[in-house]
Amino acid sequence: MDSLLQQLERFSEVLAVSRTTHVSTWDAATVRRALQWARYLRHVHRRFGRHARIRKALERRLQNQWKQEGGSGPAPALGLTNFQALGHCDLLLSLRLLANRALGDAAFHYLLQELFPGPGVPGAEEGTLQGSLALLARRRAAVHMLRSSAYRENPVLQEDSLMKTQAELLLERLQEVGEAHAEGPGRFLSRLWEHLPHNNFLKVTAAALLLPPSSPRHQEEESELGNPRRAGERGRELLHWLLGKSEVIVAFCRNLPAGLLTSVAGRHPEVSRVYLGLLTDWGRHLHYDLQKGIWIGTESQDVPWEELYGRFQSLCQAPPPLKDEVLTTLKSCKAQDGDFEVPGLSIWTDLLLALESGA
Amino acid sequence: MAQDSVGLSSDYQFWIQKLSVWKQASTLETQQDTCLYLPQFQEFLRQMYEALKEMDSNTVIERFPTIGQLLAKTCRNPFILAYDESQKILIWCLCCLINKDPQNSGESQLNSWTRGLLSRILAAFRSDIKEVDLFTQGLGYAPADYYPGLLKNMVLSLVSELRENHLNGFNTQSRKKICLPVSAVLCLWLRHLPSLEKAVLHLFEKLVSSERNCLRRIECFMKDSLLPEAACHPAIFRVVDEMFRYALLETEGAPEVLAAMQVFTRCFVEALEKENQQPKFALKTYFPYASPSLVMVLLQRPKDIPQGLWHRPLKRISEMLKEIVEDETQGSSGGPFENWFLLAHFGGWADIAAEQLLTSVGDAEPPEALLWLLAFSSSPGDGPQQRAQTMVEVKAVLSHLGRLLRSPTLSAGNLLAAAEESREGDPRPPACQQLTRRLLLNFLLWAPGGRAMARDVITLMARTDEIMHEIVGFLDQTLYRWDHLGVDAPGSRKLARELLAELRGQA
């Protein structure tokens, strides 16, 4: 076990070096050894994919390493990031070497011969690097092609293909992290929050919370991981973390579009509770300006009336029980304020009036 | 070898020109043109590779001085790179240019340039959305990890958007119209059964909700859905067929479902014929439970046979079916339902049988074969005795109608009575009633006396909404059939059209 872990660490170093100018010292023999090593680790991946204990140990080591590198940071990972990456570490190594200008001509020539032996090996294509690299190029072109000619951002965010893909990836990664360390997902998410642009991250989180319950997707990984995903549990850790970090949930409720939040609240009652709590809080910060005849805030970060109304309107268009919950909340707030029917005295009265007339 | 190289040279010129026009294939025209030529271009790349691999890099430049242009332009065209093996062959070609040991700056530069191109083809996808890149990197994923998922999502959303646009007739003016080639949709459906099922269900929804009783529109929707064309592939045909089968079972033979299935079959047969002179798949792969000779006869197009000779295939069909269905020892070709289901695909034959019976009413004894066919198609579950009974009833109706034809006392009331009174005076089973209604309607359209009182008879007949619905359906189907078969009967056609318009207006 220890020797395996050592191998892993050393290969990770090799992988890291493969991007640097240090490869200028590599000759054909070095390249050969590096590729062989990668092939060996691929074999390890195949062999131990079903051994939960070994897999877990390897996963943990890799994730720790990644964290030490400053994982989730803005730069692409230097080494291997997780067990799954072992499955195509040879591909990873090859790509880096191919792109590295510092690699000498002779070594590069050797690399090409190894990677692209040419036609004449029928049927074996599937497992070869030649096949995988060609497939990668093909997919890249297909994505580019679709993106430039046929893609349009879907106004329903959770159905947008880019959003959905990011959401699926997030949940997948959380699952792996969770399997290696029990407290892993929370810490991982916090790191992501620190390093990634918030806006996109929040949208992806919402999309992830709206993904349909687990279907037999990624069946290969499932059987490799030996741990079938349990339906409905996919977003658990994400939700837990979201609700646990006040900074994040506030940003979530404040910055995401009303329709999206309504969908999330409809699916996850815990979110709807927090969301309603925040909305009522924000509402209380506004006061009525007699001269202008409108509700306004005093500080710049106060949520303006229009936005508040927009969010409540969206919530009222949701199916029950959410819709009912919202109306009950509004009515009870209105009652607390004195149950006025005339406008201008309680923001809740005014909101209800506006919602009724708008509906 | 010399001949090959001459051929290659002229091809080369052709392709360099094409590539210059295509550029990055960013307009609809260049995209469509590129797609048309993809297979040939791949073949050309293969030939280039075969030539290049025999040369060293200096010879290559001598022989093809503009090779750089060719390869660079190819690298910039994502359609080419995404097609089949083109990207692989292109990489091989580039590998041929790499010099193991460059002797001068020229060779070094060539190496450098070639490596740049290789990098470009294989480099990580720099999406123009910075956030996606950042996010996936932040998660520790390389493009190789997430391309399959991303592609799947993009294609699925595109296909569902196209399908909605097609079926809603919505014009996407805000952006370019993209025609997803049938082969791409076919690939998707073959690999991902749920998308196929969704497409069929979507079609069913559309048909049932809005286009009842208008076969022409149903045909349009059917063709737009691409299902008939795709069904040329037996796997797809079988799935769609199963869904029709279940729909029929669940709705207990609803006429709308039957009509839709017949339209589907028609469009499917049309697509099959258009696609290939030689059928790619044996008929048995489409209809595995049916007798192949029966399928062959059913597939015959009445259009190809002179109208006067239609009774021949009808007789054949009837005899074959009778043999299969009534011979209890023959278990192999499926029971009555399977055979009825098969016949229902080609419903036109039963309709033609009814018409034939009517147009020759009063002339001679109605042929037993036609009577059997009609009885079977309207009530496949009957035992032989029951069926014989039905045939007798129908015969009686026909002869009664024949008598009325020559009688001076022809009136709407008489006609209706002739059709509706059963011999024993007992009410006929509903399937039989439907059959006699159909015969009566045919009579009205064809017999000279019938035309005069068509409206009155129909008014008397249509006692319930359901029956009215049935009549409208009959008229629509008849006109649809006549249009496709080119039946020459201007008087009957006019009458049918008028009646249909009136009845539709009333509904």
UniProtKB/TrEMBL annotation, chain A:
Looking up Gene3D superfamilies in the UniProt record yields:
1.25.40.490
Q: Is-annotated flag, keyword Signal? A: no
Where does the UniProt annotation locate this protein?
A: Nucleus
Sorted keywords for this record are: DNA damage, DNA repair, Nucleus
Kindly list the GO CC terms recorded for this protein. Answer: chromatin; Fanconi anaemia nuclear complex; nucleoplasm
Q: Which GO terms describe its biological process?
A: interstrand cross-link repair
Q: Does the keyword Nucleus apply?
A: yes
Function noted in UniProt? DNA repair protein that may operate in a postreplication repair or a cell cycle checkpoint function. May be implicated in interstrand DNA cross-link repair and in the maintenance of normal chromosome stability.
Name the record gives this protein: Fanconi anemia group F protein
This protein's species is Camelus dromedarius
Q: What is the lineage of its organism?
A: Eukaryota, Metazoa, Chordata, Craniata, Vertebrata
UniProtKB/TrEMBL annotation, chain B:
Name its species.
Camelus bactrianus
The protein here is known as Fanconi anemia group C protein isoform X3
- On the tree of life, the source organism's domain of life is Eukaryota
